[in-house]
């Protein structure tokens, strides 16, 4: 019998330094995380001891039970961490976000989340947020009032504008904006008078958007995550959805368990590859040879779909000529994959149709990214996998609203809706905005560059090149002056390459502004002492609006909590700046403003009135909210509502959702699916490239959507075409007035679209997809070696492009870099990618303790062969050095996940720079829990030949012990 | 009578750690304490498989058998809980547990163990259900609200399943049937006996 | 007299101090091997009842299945 004290003191789970938890044995084998956790144990513990703020201690000790009283309000929102678009039930008590329940009736995620989604409620704590407007004064952060911040930042930008023109200010927007904010942001840049506006899409899927749109019309995921239930084969190349889009794996596994084959092609044996039926390792940057290698077997064995090609594809003969060069021997020589492996992949795709083709950054982030994406499309066209449920090109987008921000034109080369920058495009939007076209012209610099090119009509500098916009000789930049002020609005700098040059550029700027919920790496990576401003924006949980998932579904988020600390919603900050700049009244003439906050629904309605090209016209705020309130009525495979108020609609009305909201088009679940009427989401390939090329008909032949009154191909609809067809009188008198002289893209009444669909036709026509893009540098996708290659022996046969004098306003180098062989000094290929716990530059997720605890160290994956050759042991600190001089000090992770000769780094870390810890440069209490070297400090020059996408999947490095 | 069980389907587990952060989120588990963790074998090589592990709420719980102060109790549906007021932090349960579930916060600089903490199957502790006292000491009590553990409810691929053992087995059997594979009920024999 | 008061005061304080050692309940708890003597969890009263189990079964079918 034992005596002991009976304690009545509650034993709260106390804050600890992390060391005890590590005593738990985990059996044989050791995972990446354990390695990192164990090896970082002492450091992590020590750091925590010193960095836990009093607030954090309090939070860790008590779970604020006092917050958990009172009635619970359940708010429906959508996760902000990736493009899957997982539904969220947020429970709010007394204005505090106290609970998060699985949204099990949501059609995309059925309640599921990944590590990030399951940790969303931490957004309601926001311990490490940027709390107040701040500025750097003599190297110290000083708190400001919002009014002063707007005034001061505004004056500085206006003075740059006065001295150097509107193009000297760069407005870098975000995939974290909701649709309304994204649209306002692009409009804001237009009113400021510049096309120097861009966002993350440039450096994630710009080559997809360009490549795919130029193949068949729209540059987006053609089907949906849910539709993969119908796939018989799923081929993933250059993508690791198990870490980047974990909930998508739920849909992939549903297909797999029903017999679908999962094929993964990647330089790394990823967590996705671990579940593959067939895994193929290729050398980074050899996608075109691999795809042509598969296609070689397809053509060799007559596995292609001849009828589909004859009816719906242009230029396959030219593809055959190129593919014929890629014999199994040559494919193995270039990619490293042998004949049998390649043949098996091709055969699996052939024998399991319909199959879908998934790709991500591994395919897009290359100097030939646009060639890669087009090669993928061609493969699907050859097998007839397009326009069918279970098929398609399922391009997984990255950020939660990168699709929406792309569609709404936060890009340097187009206005919202992919209208471009031509005079016609500006006139269209001027009409929607209700401002005279001449007013917009007056906002721009009207001096001509490069002959007669005016900045208003020329592509602005892309985010991948802003550094060159600052540092390049003024005379070589096709605008009045260099970029002199940068506004990072929801965008981190550590996602862009060439770190050392970026630091130099930041220091050369007149003004550097961050508008973000977090200070981000922008606040600390330079050695400036003045002229830096941090303005706190709130997250999407502190406002409301619509967001577009990867599958083009538009979802509505309600506001969960009030903006934390002194933060404001993006659209409020835009309004206040517009006010300071003097164009608020004009810019918001159709939009009500309450307490400086533009009314979100009015913004939605305004873009509904102009986004005819991609069909963002039918998704009114009312319909979006109706879908949001009826998640449970949508089928989890077809996404179609069965009964209920949204009966017959597809969830989120995936664009194109044609015509006006009153037309109640249900949205288009799978693009180019001719088995359905257009009125029920059917489509043909878009007639975007004319009607004839070299004497060959570009319109579809004998293929048309179900119920079409035109039983053949046809061009895009115009007012004249309606008259020729005798359908003009189907328009109302009012519609006729609006439609006269217009086409399906510019008729603001929507009448042309309505009448075309009434007759079973697609407003954008019915054409062939083109495999040859005659407007691109490589009309037929070809292989070109990366600028920095380990296979210099292949450069002669597969050289890169010639240097270009002006590309997106800047000189751009290709051949002059490839001219030198760096592979002797830098023998290892450097590639990068994602971790499941973090997102993007990672400032937000590394500030979430529930996530940060799981990944405490930046690391580099090295094969045992390379590690032993370099004298590097597992867990040891090493330098990863690039041929351009950037170097990062990181922990070695020795693993066979990468092949010999390949090193991998994750891209979410920041806050260390070339060996220095910058923690003390953050404003007090706003430093993320975990810091580390940004891999992009050691990534090098290289830009896609069409979109200026940066090359981050294939560079060179050497690794030495630190 | 129901018997609450966890099952992690290794064919579906992708080591996304949603279960780990869901647990942190629902129970406000502090940095350094991991009631649930994901273990990966053959990391980065063919055959790589992951399993999410926490307290399995064993039928004849070894932790309970070795506890010198008998702080454990089991609900009618087989959830193994403990009273932190009774626990003396001796660590015996940690050595007995085949799953490495018990966790101990470090209370002083000299490493004296604090009260043991572990997965409660989201069923709290002895205090009044869903009271502030219970939440502070043990975290949420979802079972009392008619809900299941959040780790399983939020699993990205529905690999981790929690609930009555019969329902769990039925659901899993259907999957195995579709896949045409053999069931691999990792940890079940150890936790719930040969049956 | 004064020393007596002091003595009483000291005794009272000592008593208080001693009582403090046993917590405010002031009771001793006897350990009985194999027997749980902690607080009674109210969950034990509802766990295993048909309503409780039916609720959890409904929940299971909603959130754990692929629907």
Topology (SSEs and partners):
The complex is a heterotrimer of chains A (962), B (195) and C (67).
Chain A: E1 3-4, H1 32-39, H2 41-51, H3 54-61, E2 73-78, E3 87-93, E4 96-102, E5 134-137, E6 140-143, H4 146-164, E7 169-172, H5 179-192, E8 197-198, H6 206-216, E9 233-237, H7 241-244, H8 246-257, E10 261-265, E11 278-280, H9 287-300, H10 306-312, E12 313-314, H11 316-324, H12 328-335, H13 339-351, E13 355-359, H14 361-364, H15 369-382, E14 393-395, H16 402-407, H17 423-433, H18 437-443, H19 466-471, E15 485-489, H20 499-508, E16 511-516, E17 532-536, E18 545-548, E19 554-557, H21 570-581, H22 584-587, E20 593-594, E21 597-598, H23 600-608, H24 621-628, E22 692-693, E23 696-697, H25 719-725, H26 733-739, H27 751-758, E24 769-770, E25 804-807, E26 810-812, H28 815-818, E27 828-833, H29 849-852, E28 859-862, H30 864-870, E29 877-881, E30 887-894, E31 902-906, E32 911-913, E33 916-917, E34 932-933, E35 955-961
Parallel strand pairs in A: 7-8, 7-15, 9-10, 9-13, 10-11, 12-24, 13-14, 15-16, 16-17, 27-31, 28-30, 32-34
Antiparallel strand pairs in A: 2-3, 3-4, 5-6, 5-17, 18-19, 20-21, 22-23, 25-26, 27-35, 28-31, 29-30, 29-35, 32-33
Helix pairs in contact in A: 1-2, 4-21, 5-21, 5-23, 6-15, 9-11, 9-12, 9-13, 9-15
Chain B: E1 4-8, H1 18-27, E2 37-41, E3 49-53, H2 62-66, E4 72-74, E5 80-82, H3 92-96, H4 132-138, H5 150-153, E6 160-164, H6 165-179, H7 188-192
Antiparallel strand pairs in B: 1-6, 2-3, 4-5
Chain C: H1 2-21, E1 29-30, H2 43-46, H3 50-63
């Amino acid at each position: 019998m034992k005596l002991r004290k009976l304690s009545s003191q509650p034993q709260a789970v106390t804050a600890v330094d992390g060391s005890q938890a590590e005593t738990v044995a985990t059996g044989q084998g050791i995972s990446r995380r354990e390695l990192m956790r164990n090896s970082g144990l002492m450091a992590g513990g020590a750091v925590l001891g010193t960095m836990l703020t009093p607030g954090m201690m309090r939070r860790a000790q008590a779970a604020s039970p006092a917050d958990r009283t009172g009635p619970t309000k359940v708010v429906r929102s959508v996760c902000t961490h990736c493009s899957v678009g997982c539904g969220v039930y947020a429970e709010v008590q007394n204005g505090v976000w106290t609970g998060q329940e699985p949204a099990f009736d949501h059609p995309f995620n059925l309640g599921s989340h990944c590590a990030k989604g399951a940790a969303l409620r931490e957004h309601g704590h926001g311990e490490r947020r940027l709390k107040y407007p701040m500025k750097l004064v003599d190297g110290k952060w000083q708190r400001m009032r919002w009014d002063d911040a707007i005034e001061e930042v505004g004056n500085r930008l206006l003075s740059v504008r006065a001295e150097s023109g509107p193009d000297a200010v760069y407005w870098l927007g975000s995939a974290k904006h909701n649709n309304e904010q994204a649209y306002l942001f692009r409009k804001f840049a237009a009113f400021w008078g510049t096309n120097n506006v861009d966002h993350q899409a440039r450096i994630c899927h710009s080559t997809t958007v360009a490549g795919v749109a130029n193949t068949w019309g729209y540059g987006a995921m053609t089907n949906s995550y849910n539709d993969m239930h119908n796939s018989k084969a799923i081929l993933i190349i250059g993508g690791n959805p198990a870490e980047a889009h974990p909930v998508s794996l739920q849909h992939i596994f549903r297909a797999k368990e029903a017999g679908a084959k999962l094929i993964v092609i990647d330089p790394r044996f990823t967590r996705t590859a671990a579940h593959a039926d067939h895994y193929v390792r290729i050398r980074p940057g050899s996608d075109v040879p691999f795809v042509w290698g598969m296609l070689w077997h397809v053509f060799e064995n007559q596995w292609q779909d001849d009828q589909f090609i004859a009816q719906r594809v242009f230029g396959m003969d030219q593809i055959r000529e190129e593919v014929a060069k890629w014999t199994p021997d040559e494919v193995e020589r270039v990619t490293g994959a042998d004949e049998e492996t390649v043949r098996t992949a091709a055969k699996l795709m052939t024998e399991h149709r319909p199959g879908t083709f998934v790709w991500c950054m591994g395919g897009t982030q290359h100097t030939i990214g646009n060639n890669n994406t087009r090669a993928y499309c061609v493969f699907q066209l050859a097998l007839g996998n397009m326009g069918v449920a279970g098929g398609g090109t399922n391009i997984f987008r990255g950020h939660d609203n990168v699709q929406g921000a792309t569609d709404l034109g936060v890009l340097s080369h187009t206005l919202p809706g992919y209208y471009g920058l031509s005079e016609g495009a500006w006139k269209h939007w001027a009409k929607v905005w209700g401002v005279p076209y001449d007013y917009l012209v007056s906002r721009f610099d009207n001096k001509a560059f490069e002959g007669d090119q005016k900045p208003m009509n020329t592509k602005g500098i892309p985010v991948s090149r802003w550094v060159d916009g600052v540092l390049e000789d003024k005379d070589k930049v096709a605008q009045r002056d260099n970029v002199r002020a940068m506004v990072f609005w929801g965008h981190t700098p550590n996602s862009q390459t060439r770190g050392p040059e970026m630091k130099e550029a930041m220091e050369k700027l007149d003004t550097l502004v961050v508008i973000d919920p977090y200070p981000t790496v922008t606040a600390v990576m330079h050695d400036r002492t003045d002229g830096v401003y941090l303005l706190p924006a709130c997250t999407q949980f502190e406002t409301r609006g619509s967001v577009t998932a990867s599958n083009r579904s538009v979802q509505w988020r309600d506001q969960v909590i009030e903006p934390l600390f002194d933060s404001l919603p993006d659209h409020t900050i835009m309004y206040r700046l517009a006010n300071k700049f003097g164009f608020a009244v004009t810019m918001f003439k159709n939009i009500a403003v309450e307490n400086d906050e533009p009314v979100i629904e009015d913004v939605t309605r305004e873009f509904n009135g102009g986004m005819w090209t991609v069909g963002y016209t039918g998704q009114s705020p009312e319909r979006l909210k109706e879908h949001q309130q009826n998640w449970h009525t949508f089928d989890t495979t077809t996404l179609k509502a069965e009964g209920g108020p949204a009966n017959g609609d597809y969830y989120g009305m995936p664009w194109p959702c044609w015509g006006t909201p009153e037309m109640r088009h249900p949205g288009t679940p799978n693009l180019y699916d001719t088995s359905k009427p257009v009125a029920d989401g059917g489509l043909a390939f878009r007639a975007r490239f004319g009607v004839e090329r070299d004497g060959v008909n570009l319109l579809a032949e004998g293929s048309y959507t179900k119920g079409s009154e035109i039983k053949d191909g046809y061009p895009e609809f115009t007012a004249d075409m309606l008259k020729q067809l005798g359908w003009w009188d189907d328009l109302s008198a009012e519609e006729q007035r609006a439609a006269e002289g217009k086409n399906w893209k510019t008729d603001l009444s929507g009448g042309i679209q309505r009448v075309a669909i009434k007759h079973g036709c697609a407003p954008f026509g019915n054409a062939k997809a083109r495999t040859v893009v005659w407007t691109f540098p490589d009309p037929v996708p070809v292989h070109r070696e990366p600028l920095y290659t380990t296979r210099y022996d292949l450069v002669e046969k597969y050289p890169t492009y010639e240097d270009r004098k002006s590309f997106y306003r800047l000189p751009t180098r290709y051949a002059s870099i490839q001219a030198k062989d760096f592979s002797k000094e830098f023998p290892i290929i450097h590639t990068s990618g994602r971790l499941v716990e973090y997102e993007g530059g990672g400032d937000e997720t590394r500030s979430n303790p529930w996530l940060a605890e799981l990944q405490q160290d930046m690391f580099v994956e090295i094969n045992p062969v390379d590690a032993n050759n370099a004298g590097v042991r597992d867990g040891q600190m090493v330098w990863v050095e690039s041929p351009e001089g950037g170097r990062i000090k990181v922990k070695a992770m020795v693993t066979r996940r990468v092949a010999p000769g390949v090193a991998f780094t994750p891209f979410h870390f920041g806050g260390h720079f070339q060996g220095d810890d910058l923690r003390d440069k953050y404003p007090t209490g706003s430093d993320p829990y975990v810091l580390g070297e940004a891999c992009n400090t050691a990534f090098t020059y290289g830009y896609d030949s069409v979109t200026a996408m940066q090359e981050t999947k294939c560079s060179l490095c050497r690794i030495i012990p630190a | 009578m129901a018997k609450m069980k966890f099952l992690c389907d290794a064919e579906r587990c992708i080591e996304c750690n949603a279960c780990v952060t869901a647990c942190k989120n629902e129970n406000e588990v502090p940095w350094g304490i991991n009631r649930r963790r994901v273990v990966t074998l053959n990391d980065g090589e063919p055959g790589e498989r992951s399993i999410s592990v926490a307290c399995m709420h064993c039928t004849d719980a070894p932790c309970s058998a070795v506890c010198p102060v008998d702080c454990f109790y089991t609900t009618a549906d087989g959830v193994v809980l403990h009273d932190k007021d009774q626990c003396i932090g001796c660590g015996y349960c940690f050595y007995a547990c085949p799953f490495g579930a018990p966790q101990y916060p470090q209370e002083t600089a000299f490493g004296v163990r604090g009260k043991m903490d572990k997965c409660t199957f989201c069923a709290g502790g002895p205090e009044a259900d869903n009271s502030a006292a219970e939440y502070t000491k043990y975290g949420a009590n979802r079972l009392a609200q008619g809900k299941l553990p959040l780790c399983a409810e939020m699993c990205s691929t529905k690999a981790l399943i929690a609930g009555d053992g019969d329902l769990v087995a039925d659901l899993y059997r259907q999957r195995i049937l579709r896949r045409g594979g053999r069931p691999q009920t990792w940890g079940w024999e150890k936790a719930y006996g040969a049956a | 007299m004064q020393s007596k008061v002091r003595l009483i005061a000291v005794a009272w304080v000592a008593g208080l101090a001693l009582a403090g050692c046993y917590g405010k309940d002031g009771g001793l708890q006897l350990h009985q091997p194999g027997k749980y003597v902690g607080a009674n969890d109210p969950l034990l009263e509802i766990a295993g009842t048909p309503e409780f189990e039916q609720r959890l079964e409904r929940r299971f079918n909603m959130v754990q299945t692929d629907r």
